[in-house]
Each structure stands twice: as C-alpha cells, then as structure tokens.
Amino acid sequence: MLAELRNLLSHEPSTANKEDYRRSIIEDNVLGKRTGSTRRLSAQRLSELYGLDNAIPLFRALRTLWDIDDVSRPLLAFLCAYARDPLLRLTTPAVLPLRVGEFVSTADIEAVLISETQDRLNPSIRNKVARNAGSSWTQSGHLTGRTRKVRGRAVATAVNAAYALFLAYLGGFRGQRLLGSSWAQLLDRSPSEVKELARAAGRRGFINYRSVGDIIEIRFPEWLTPEEEELLLEQNQPTSASF
After folding, report:
1. Three-state SS at 75
2. CB 66 within 8 A of CB 9
3. CA dihedral 226, 231, 237, 239 (to 10 degrees)
4. Are the beta carbons of 232 and 168 closer than 8 angstroms?
C-alpha cells in the first residue's frame, strides 16, 4: 500500500495523531476510495502495516525520516511493513537469496509459505498472501516486473540504513552485529556497502556512528523516549532477539 501511504502522509503533518489519520482516510477520503467500507478497510490495513501512531516508535521514526527525500520512501515503507507483518517476513527465503535477474513466481512464494505455515493457511488465503507479498517485494525494489517478476536490487540510502539499523537495535542487536543483522540485509547491499551507508547516516546526523578499528558503536539519539529505552533494556536482558 505504498501509494496509499504516500498520499496519506502528504496530507497530514508529522505531528498528526492516529485519530487525524483515521479521519483523513474515512471522513476526508484523501485516498479517493469509492465507499465507506473501503475507506474503513484502508484505514485498518494501513494501521496494521504502519501503525499510524507517533506513540509507536516504528512509525514515529518512519514519519521523521519520510520527509527527508522521496527516493528513500519505498524501502522505508517496506521495512516498517516487514517489521509488523509476520507473513511478509515468512516469504523472505523466496526472494532475498536470489541473484539479480533470477525469476520468482507466485508459486515459488507459496511454496515457502507452505513450508513455513504447513496447513495453517487454506489454499486461497495462501495464494492471496503470496501475491500480496510479491507486490510488496516489487514496490520495495527487491523484485521488478508485473506478471513476470525477477530479482532486482532495491535502492538503499543513508536514510534507509538509519531505519534498518534502528529496527535491528530494537531487536537487541548492538555494535558490529547491527551491520550484519537481518534488517541490514534488506538494504540489498554488501557488508562493506552497508557500513558505508551507516557512516553516511552518521555524517548526516541521522544516527551517532563511531568506529575504532573493529569496534563500532551506533546510537540513535532521541529516537526513543527514556521510558522506551528502559523497557527495551529490560526486554533484551535475558537474550537478544534474533530478528
């Protein structure tokens, strides 16, 4: 729903709250939906994918980064949706390991879903999830094409790197491990390129990046409230999250 997200965020300021977004979609119909039911469905789905609430760190960070440049927006939106949609994450093995130019079909994505979910999804739902996932991976730039999809290479910027590393930080990764996390891999770049994007994010002031030899320190000043930082510390004390 990249087009809908673009439209919505262009109509609402970064200070908007969740009720503002809901009103904009349902009452003001900024997305141009034909019926009240489709407006409500759009509001629900966008909220599920992105949060649309500055009280949610994932969305608050996305909203802050969104207005920096347009080229970063497809991957920003994908990273946020990927963090919030477990079914989209399950399709990763069907796409990310492919070499640029390799073909991937809806059936390939379905096969991964079958492996991951067994019989928990009926065939029609599974096919719909596979098609939606293929669309999401295409909008992010990891795939190209409409009916015949092939592996592409997503456009990744310092803005995207800052957000991907933040997601990894929320998952319990620290230091050098941030650069090798699953989130960093979604940037579609080599380890050295990811490191350079992180450095660029530091130079532009998005994050605090320090490197001494093999030791890397990455911080996210004011991305989280003190209360959120404390909660994150408590959550990550026993074991670091693997995702």
Report:
1. helix
2. yes
3. -130
4. no
